[in-house]
Amino acid sequence: MILISGATGGIGGEVCRLLKAAGTPFRAMARKQEQVDAFARQGIDGVLGDFDRPETLAGAMQGCDTMFLITPPTPNQFAQETAAIDAAKRAGIGRIVKISASDGNVRSPVPWARTHALIDHHLRAAGIGWTILKPTAFMQNFLWFKDPIARGFLPQVTGTGSVSWIDTRDVARVAATVLMQDGHDSATYFLTGPETLDMKEAAKRLSAAVGHKVRYLDLPTPLFRALLRLTGNSRWMAKGLVVQFADVVAGHHDIDPTFEIERLTGQAPHSFADFVRDHRDSFARPGS
Ligand SMILES: NC(=O)c1ccc[n+]([C@@H]2O[C@H](COP(=O)([O-])OP(=O)(O)OC[C@H]3O[C@@H](n4cnc5c(N)ncnc54)[C@H](OP(=O)(O)O)[C@@H]3O)[C@@H](O)[C@H]2O)c1
């Protein structure tokens, strides 16, 4: 039995869909009863579990031998994931497949990159099986800017820096594959999309797919931070994103394409053009 955390989220939800389609037994963990009830209506075995209340985890993990571990980037992420890893060990879970980040580094100026590196260390030392998935930045991040894109502008602070953008559907496909297979113990996989794009090129691809001109707008960082706040990001998140984009990406520190997705799943990853086509309505001009 596989326990899927983050089952109501983008990646975890897609992992559930793939496991269900494959007929693989799993249990979807959620922190609210109404979410568990919604899983039951879809014929999915749901269970209550909250990383902020570690006392709920033993019950959620009971009878499971494998766990998919994902949490959102917040200041609580280290406490949440290390509590989950410790609870998994106590519950007899034999392997954890964890979503980390390609830029994970204990010396990173990006808070979640530092946190993921520390959690990865904790997991490797925990004495249970592990597989660590380290994706680059998600194509789905472009949806934060769907309104400016619909109006013809792609705001960023990355200069000429580029990213090997990955579609979260491919991250989920790798996760589902390694959850269902043996042979991935003690493995760390760096996951990327098929090509590296800077923002000028991304704007060009957006223009071609959505049918109106989209221009890359290289903003001063205070303005970009304000925009991130306006689009619903917390102060902590906005500050971290500015460092990530203005220092790490603009400084040309992202990784090159690795082609791990194709190797692990036998299927090529989604291209940026695929992503834009599949979210075309989100980027369309208002009223068009
Ligand atoms: N964005 C990127 O470019 C990028 C790149 C590389 C790696 N990553 C990593 O990818 C991960 C996924 O991030 P995301 O923002 O995309 O996730 P997400 O899809 O928003 O999913 C987060 C999930 O965690 C659940 N959750 C939140 N708090 C919880 C708690 N206390 N107990 C149990 N479950 C809880 C949420 O449930 P609710 O529905 O109840 O909120 C949701 O199902 C992060 O670790 C991030 O660092 C992101």
TrEMBL record:
The organism's place on the tree of life at top rank: Bacteria
Known InterPro entries for this protein?
Ergot_Alk_Oxidoreductase, NAD(P)-bd_dom_sf, NmrA-like
The NmrA-like domain covers 2-231
Family matches, as Pfam families:
NmrA (PF05368)
Q: Mind telling me what this protein is named?
A: NAD(P)-dependent oxidoreductase
Q: Supply the source organism for this entry.
A: Sphingomonas hankookensis
Q: What is the lineage of its organism?
A: Bacteria, Pseudomonadati, Pseudomonadota, Alphaproteobacteria, Sphingomonadales
